[in-house]
Amino acid sequence: MYLNKTFLYGNLTRDPELKALPSGQQLVSFGLATNRTYKDKNGQKQEATEFHNIVAFGRLAEVIAQYMKKGRPLFVEGRIQTRSWESDGQKKYRTEIVVENFQFGDGGKGPASGGSGASRGETTPADGEGKNDSEIKYPDEEINPEDIPF
User: Fold this and answer.
1) For 35, phi and psi rounded to 5 degrees?
2) Nearest alpha carbon to residue 52 among 10, 18, 19, 17
3) Which one, of 62, 51, 148, 131, lies nearest residue 94 by Cα?
4) pTM (two decimals)
5) Which residues contact 81 (CB under 8 A, 6 or more apart)?
6) How far apart are CA 6 and CA 99, in angstroms?
7) Nearest to 52 by CA among 69, 77, 27
8) 50, exposed or middle or buried, with CB in 10 Å at 0-12, 13-18, 19+?
9) Percent of the chain, pLDDT > 70?
10) pLDDT score of 106
11) Residue 136's pLDDT band (cuts 50, 70, 90)
12) Options 3.40.50.360, 1.10.10.10, 3.30.70.1230, 2.40.50.140; CATH of 6-125
């Protein structure tokens, strides 16, 4: 069995662009930046940023385009896909993440934050519907990655 699955959590690098395909299906594309921190061979703390091309189709595309803006955090689950085409006699390639599931990040900036999300074209209930009193409460303070013991 083979597996093509990716999980990304990062910030949008540009506003989502919503388009309609000739079939009428909605398509949204945007960039997502992820970063990691590490210590180099001299013990200096370094940060590396990766930029990813993201696409989503159908209802997922509509919801992302409606609520997300540049700079907002987003969790994306999907698959890696590379497309190729010819332009001016040269073969060009583009590697993208095709969204299968997503969840809004905790940016604290209005309707795009919080933890509501959508999966395979389904949206979550509106605020106040189906909420449970035993909902998980997360701490307000930031967690320092150096404090994690593993």
Assistant:
1) -140, 165
2) 10
3) 51
4) 0.68
5) 95, 96, 97, 98
6) 9
7) 77
8) exposed
9) 73
10) 81
11) low
12) 2.40.50.140
